[in-house]
UniProtKB/TrEMBL annotation:
It comes from Winogradskyella bathintestinalis. Its EC number is 3.1.-.-. It is found in: Cytoplasm. Coiled coil: none annotated. Gene3D superfamilies: YqgF/RNase H-like domain (3.30.420.140). The keyword Hydrolase applies. This is Putative pre-16S rRNA nuclease. Belongs to the YqgF HJR family. Its main location: cytoplasm. InterPro entries: RNaseH-like_sf (IPR012337), YqgF (IPR005227), YqgF/RNaseH-like_dom (IPR006641), YqgF/RNaseH-like_dom_sf (IPR037027). Pfam families: RuvX. Keywords: Cytoplasm, Hydrolase, Nuclease, Ribosome biogenesis.
């Protein structure tokens, strides 16, 4: 089995999370400047055995796509050309940013640490991945 990598795509920064080889535990990996995302992914999949990439699907409360979906679709086209051998799946990511912020509060992070948007993106990616793992079981 290979790892599953999750992406919380943003126009400036992108949070990334990954599972262990057994696909049991979801852990935050890093936050990458979105301009460098494809290069980071290409490099990562050459070093690690990645079986699947899960990309968050941002929806609004009425179930329509959010405005950021336009950018994600463009990214997905580039991703499929850059790393065509890896399957990409989508999963609803509603509320992940709010849940990430609440997770930071619950874990006792100070206000200054909770303002770190990169950390919020990484935690959001972890929540997306955890949600995917739960739905796959």
């Amino acid at each position: 089995m290979g790892r599953i990598l999750a992406i919380d795509y943003g126009t400036k920064r992108t949070g990334i999370a990954v599972t262990d080889e057994m696909q049991i535990i979801a852990s935050g990996l890093t936050t990458v400047d979105t301009k460098e995302l494809l290069q980071f992914l290409k490099s990562y999949v050459t070093k690690e055995n990645v079986e699947k990439i899960v990309v968050g699907l941002p929806k609004q409360m009425n179930n329509t796509a959010s405005e950021s979906e336009v950018y994600i679709q463009k990214f997905l086209v580039k991703l499929s050309k850059t790393i065509p051998e890896i399957t990409v799946e989508r999963i609803d990511e509603r509320f992940t940013s709010k849940m990430a912020f609440q997770t930071m509060i619950d874990s006792g992070l100070k206000k200054k640490q909770r303002q770190n948007k990169a950390l919020i993106d990484e935690i959001s990616a972890t929540l997306i991945l955890q949600s995917y793992l739960s739905s796959a079981r």
